[in-house]
From TrEMBL:
One of its GO terms (molecular function) is methyltransferase activity. It holds the Pfam family Methyltransf_23. PANTHER family: ABC TRANSMEMBRANE TYPE-1 DOMAIN-CONTAINING PROTEIN-RELATED, METHYLTRANSFERASE. It comes from Pseudogymnoascus verrucosus. This is Methyltransferase domain-containing protein.
Length: 346
């Protein structure tokens, strides 16, 4: 991790230009079968201590019970391990960076929306020991042991924020896809509560699966899962197309210097590029472990599938993710912008 006296600016190595990455991912023709061996949780994930205080149970999984809106994904121990592994993968995708906004070397107050296990907030607090870092979530699943400058609060980001306006140097969020029902209001609240000159950054998945070489067919289980996920999310009221709108929503809210980076996130260690090979391996495990989390409530509630129908379908999807002949990926959005120094918002 970078030293505390060095600004974590946007990466210089392999950093994409603003806009979508149209570079075709090169397949590693020498990739051997061992990379596709069955993964074990002990190899890729570590659990952290958590203090979950309450929840509801559905289809054998535990979900949050706080707030007015239901978040479609669980908050049990299985999910927490996956989220920490996903943090490692997404940091690797961003060239080892926790964020790309040029926030400067000495932010004083940082807010992490939807903090999950709190791992991002904890690492940022370590990176900036002089900053107060606050992580909020609808679930109390963060560790009890935290640094003196990091704290966690139970809060629903879609409700009115109780913080003072213009009070944060940096506001961060990731993986809110299929969790937010009113993105325009959320972006507006972020604009209201970040300081003039401060930055807001979003990291969001757009899990519509693609391939550059035609190896992903329309009838492939991976492709079917993606389209089914988008259909279910729409019915659930949390459109999965939201990442495509973030740049426009930020500009409409008043942000300036808005940048949108659309990265390719591979599934499986098929890319020739070493960093993306590792990212793809993590994402293959992430899907293997997380498909049930991402699908059960969404498909049973929105599409009226039975639990058994969901689990049978996911068996096909898992098999396809480990098929080395399929070179699939989806888009990962990094969008950030700055609040103008002169603003009349209150």
């Amino acid at each position: 991790m970078e030293s505390t006296d060095q600004e974590p600016s946007a990466p210089q190595l392999a950093a994409p230009h603003p806009g979508q990455d149209h570079t075709e991912l090169e397949v590693d023709s020498e990739e051997n079968d061992s990379a596709y061996a069955e993964s074990t949780r002990s190899s890729f994930m570590t659990s952290i201590a958590s203090s979950v205080t309450r929840g509801i149970f559905e289809n054998g999984r535990r979900y949050h019970s706080y707030g007015e809106s239901q978040y479609a994904f669980p908050n049990d121990e299985r999910e927490l391990e996956r989220l920490d592994m996903q943090h490692t993968m997404q940091t690797m995708l961003l060239n080892g960076k926790l964020f790309w906004s040029p926030i400067g070397p000495s932010p004083q107050r940082i807010l992490d929306l939807g903090t999950g296990t709190g791992i991002w907030a904890l690492e940022v607090a370590d990176l900036y020991p002089s900053a107060e870092v606050i992580g909020t979530d609808v679930s109390a699943i963060q560790p009890d042991w935290v640094g003196p400058n990091c704290s966690f609060e139970i809060d629903d980001a879609e409700q009115d924020w109780l913080y003072e306006p213009n009070s944060f140097d940096f506001i961060h969020n990731r993986n809110f896809v299929c969790a937010i029902r009113n993105w325009e209001r959320l972006v507006g609240q972020a604009f209201r509560h970040v300081k003039p000159g401060g930055w807001v950054e979003w990291h969001e998945k757009h899990p519509l699966f693609l391939s550059d070489d035609g190896s992903l067919k329309e009838d492939c289980a991976i492709a079917k899962w993606g389209t089914t996920f988008f259909e279910a999310a729409e019915i659930f009221g949390t459109s999965a197309t939201s990442p495509r709108n973030l740049k426009r929503l930020m500009i409409d809210a008043g942000f300036v210097d808005v940048e949108e980076h659309i990265l390719k996130l591979p599934v499986g260690p098929w890319p020739k590029d070493k960093r993306l090979k590792n990212v793809g391996l993590f994402e293959m495990v992430n899907m293997d472990e997380g498909l049930e989390s991402l699908s059960l409530m969404l498909f049973t509630r929105a599409l009226k599938w039975t639990r058994e129908e969901v689990l049978m379908f996911l068996m096909e999807v898992r098999k396809a993710t480990k098929d080395k002949s399929i070179h699939s990926y989806y888009h990962f959005y990094v969008v950030f912008g700055r609040k103008p120094e002169t603003t009349h918002s209150v």
